[in-house]
Design a protein that fits this description.
- It is a single chain.
- 11% of the residues are buried.
- The chain has a domain of 65 residues.
- It has three helices and no strands.
- The protein is mainly α.
Length: 107
């Protein structure tokens, strides 16, 4: 077993007070996160929208029915209107739908 001298190992994590491995205390008025609170909500909404639209896309690709297509188009349009999916993601769905005739529902 090889012993590594202390000078070669990484230093122990410290807090702003200089004490090792102690949790910092925050008052209720202090900002506790590095990112705005909306980012977590936005990320969660985005992931949920991708999950819902992705499930509808999978259903459409498996079933190839008009009902599945309309459901996918409606869900994609709704997620776009709410700002939960990007224009690029809408374009990907539209491109996949372009392989089959349009049902008349605009995205």
């Amino acid at each position: 077993m090889k012993v590594v001298p202390r000078s070669y190992s990484s230093p122990a994590p410290t807090t702003t007070e200089g004490n090792t491995m102690q949790a910092q205390r925050h008052s209720g008025s202090e900002l506790k996160a590095n990112t705005p609170p909306n980012d977590d909500t936005r990320s969660a909404r985005h992931l949920m929208a991708i999950r819902i639209v992705g499930t509808a896309l999978f259903d459409y690709q498996v079933r190839k029915t008009d009902d599945a297509r309309i459901r996918l188009e409606c869900l994609t349009s709704f997620a776009k209107e709410l700002g939960d999916i990007s224009a690029h993601e809408v374009a990907v769905v539209a491109q996949l739908l372009a392989g089959r005739g349009s049902s008349g529902v605009a995205i």
